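Quick check before the chapter quiz. The format below is the same one you will see on the exam, so make sure you can read both the input and the output lines.
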Amino acid sequence: MRISEFTPEAKNIQAAIDGYRNGDICYSAQYTLIWKGIIVDRADSYAEFTADRLARLDRYLEVYGPHWLWWESPLKAHPNDAPRQSRCCMLERNIAYHGLGQYYIIQSFWKRADWVRRLPISTSATLPPELEANILSTEEGLIYCQSEGPKLAFSSLLDSGATFPSLCQVDFHFLGIDANNYAAQTVESLQTANGIVHALTYELFVSPLDQSTMESLVDEDDAVWPYHPKYLGGLCPVTTVINETTEPDENGFIPNQRLSGLLPFLACYVTSTPTRNNIFLGEDRNDVMGGHKTPGHRRWDISMPSRQTMPWNIFQTYRDPKIRFSHRDGVIINEDRNDIRHASTTTTYQGQATERVIQHNPRAECNEAEARRQAEAAAQAPPPINTV
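Here is the expected output.
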């Protein structure tokens, strides 16, 4: 792990070190949040200080002034809950000569400085001393916040044994993260096969991509949640690759040491079938299911002959299926609606006195939420000026 070259980052790190020394950061199950070298908050989970991130940073800016966010992970954690960075093998029989190849996934990464810091708009504003030496500005004297840097795609080993995605040091450079003017958010202690290591960690937006087209897995013209971002994933801690190898071996090969982390499994619907040699990821369950994607009665056994399935083009013609699950002979039925896309119905005890029907319609929920938002905005808007 490198020594901080960015003064605001170093100030937050020193505050964390001082907190451990004087007992302000104690053995607890909470995150400790640091801003401008001050312990400003605690949180019971990562989600707690991420769900309201923008409003939270605005509040820190108002109370403490411009700076960057740094957080310390809980010390009181079960060993099995600690972040990990270890490799695991996935079956891809068509790749490796020994029949036990690996899966790789392409994910998009981009930084959003407005989610981790607050700075004044103009360099004419009063800046903390530690920011003056590292500030970037335009010729017009405006702070260059680099709010949304380049979006780049990197191939990683699909690995559920790694908690967070990981990138090489040079990858962060290509993403526009310069150690001289951009701060990390924490240092994570990661459990690996060779023991515990410490990795500098940045919060980036991460999204799995279609492996052939390099596009989002969300169809902008047919999104399940139309008023939500048109990608799967979101803000996620990203660690640096440990013991990075950049020199080629005797065959001129440089191994891909990036790990996907758990995000693809958390952000996507995922299916895998024995001997199918494919993993499918998508926004909706219909994207990853069907007779062509999850054929039945498969078993991975080298002593068994391969089973034939219906030709792929037949399924491609009729597209993905409507899905119906029947539990306990129809006591619980969950099925996609034929009249509304991306909507389903759950029915219990159908046809009986205790029958209950629950409708699931993400688009309707989004439309209702958007209508409420617009109504609230209209109510708060100042009355129009009468020019007569």
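If your answer matched, good. Residues 362-380 form the longest helix (19 residues).
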